[in-house]
Design a protein that fits this description.
single chain, mainly beta, Maltoporin, Chain A, 3% helix, transmembrane beta strand
Length: 445
């Protein structure tokens, strides 16, 4: 396959953005982005994968072996009347292609356009509301940097608005169409239907309800059945409640939140808090989750990041055709102390525990019951002071130990052609622990 110069899409974008803008009173261009890259090896000197049990997320410090680059060009236009237009794209490359809804030709590792949208604000009839259309991440996506996981994640192509003042709350609403892989291009159950199945999600947020720190999200999903999962759910609904504390749970400085999530049908299982991952869910698949996510600011250059969640799934079904589904329980808890020793040198430490009880791991009767403990020490060079300061250069050592009952779930290699789990890189030798070392650079700008 002929490779496309990865710089070409950005060049075309800049050329098109800078042409024909004489009608605008003001034109501004900025380039934001995120990059991380590093090496991870075990005590034998072999390159290794990250270590973790969960299908989503992992305690990431000293535990990332991939390269990810996001370039986010942004054009701001301001008209003579004061209307503001924001035009933004997100150009992503990741050596392990995990982009959730535009991951094509995985073997070729192409550049992905994960966003391409327009926002209009300060319109004469609604000056405080922002309207949007195109391919976009939800402005309300919420993640744990420590666990490398967006537990609220609504991405896709669609449109909507943010910041509509209802008096008692702020309203954000949007419709997203999510097309993650060729899975959705399977024939509908009735081949007389035109097109192919797709997951449409209606996302409604009520924020700062009655002036309180409480946000409430309502989500609805719809998707026609495909031949691959003819008995799967065609609809689903979910609920997320967020309590945003003042400081670290009202006790210390910093930030924190408590999150409760519930989903049924298409909104449960792997789609709890997300859209587009529940194709195989049953009508009675149900999930609920509790999350504690915070960062405490202490004295003498110390900050402490904490993250924990507990989740239960009923009648859960991975992308398989099990007739009734099964039960699954998972929980994690971790703490990452950060000590700024000088302005440009810090020490980071992380202790994390993950527990998984999956009755039928990935639908192939794999084992999945037990825990994983991970400990990391990371001397860090910093551009400036503080937990969130970037760029950072890290040298790290990570020790991890797990129960043999989760050997299938730990770095298990799923073979789609045979519907089996092969030996994972960590379990192949029969060991139940590893010592990994590496170096990594991370930056956002």
């Amino acid at each position: 396959m002929k490779r496309v110069n990865p710089a070409l899409p950005l060049t075309l974008l800049l050329a098109s953005a800078t042409s024909g803008v004489t009608h605008a009173e003001k034109y501004d261009f900025t380039l934001h982005g995120y990059m991380r890259s590093g090496i991870l090896a075990n005590s034998d000197g072999n390159r290794v994968n990250s270590v973790g049990l969960m299908p989503d997320g992992k305690f990431r410090l000293g535990n990332e072996d991939d390269t990810k680059i996001e370039l986010i060009p942004q054009v701001m236009l301001t008209s003579d009347s004061g209307v503001v237009a924001k035009i933004q794209a997100n150009i992503t490359h990741q050596s392990k292609c995990t982009s959730d809804w535009n991951c094509l030709d995985d073997d070729d590792k192409p550049v992905q356009f994960r966003e391409g949208y327009v926002e209009l604000s300060n319109l004469d009839f609604a000056p405080d509301v922002t309207f949007w259309g195109g391919k976009r991440y939800s402005s309300s996506n919420t993640s744990s940097h420590q666990f490398d996981w967006e537990y609220i994640q609504y991405n896709g192509t669609g449109g909507g608005f943010d910041k509509l003042d209802l008096g008692f709350a702020q309203l954000d609403a949007g419709v997203y169409a999510f097309t993650p892989t060729d899975e959705t291009k399977a024939y509908p159950v009735d081949r007389g239907d035109q097109g192919y199945p797709d997951d449409y999600s209606l996302n409604v947020w009520l924020k700062k309800i009655a002036g309180s720190p409480v946000d409430l999200q309502l989500i609805g999903h719809h998707m026609n059945n495909s031949e691959l999962h003819a008995d799967a759910a065609e609809k689903g609904y979910g609920l997320t409640g967020v309590y945003n504390f003042d400081g670290f749970y009202g006790v210390l400085g910093g930030s924190s939140r408590f999150v409760v999530q519930y989903g049924r049908g298409l909104a449960a299982g792997d789609s709890l808090g997300k859209n587009g991952w529940g194709w195989a869910n049953l009508d009675d698949t149900q999930s609920w989750r509790l999350i504690l996510d915070g960062l405490a600011a202490l004295d003498n250059g110390w900050e402490v990041s904490t993250f924990a969640y507990y989740q239960q799934d009923k009648n859960y079904r991975w992308w398989s055709s099990d007739s009734e589904g099964w039960g699954r329980t998972s929980w994690v808890a971790g703490v990452r102390p950060y000590q700024q020793i000088t302005k440009n040198f810090a020490m980071q430490y992380e202790v994390g525990y993950e527990y998984l009880d999956d009755k039928n791991y990935k639908g192939v009767e794999g084992k999945g019951k037990g825990g994983l403990t991970k400990v990391t020490v990371a001397p860090t060079l910093t551009f400036d002071s503080g937990y969130w300061s970037r760029p950072q250069l890290r040298l790290y050592a990570t020790w991890a130990k797990w129960d043999k009952g989760v050997s299938d779930a730990l770095d298990g290699n799923y073979d789609w052609s045979t519907n089996t789990i092969g030996s994972g890189g960590y379990s192949r030798s029969g060991k139940s622990d590893t010592l990994n070392v590496g170096i990594q650079g991370e930056v956002w700008f």
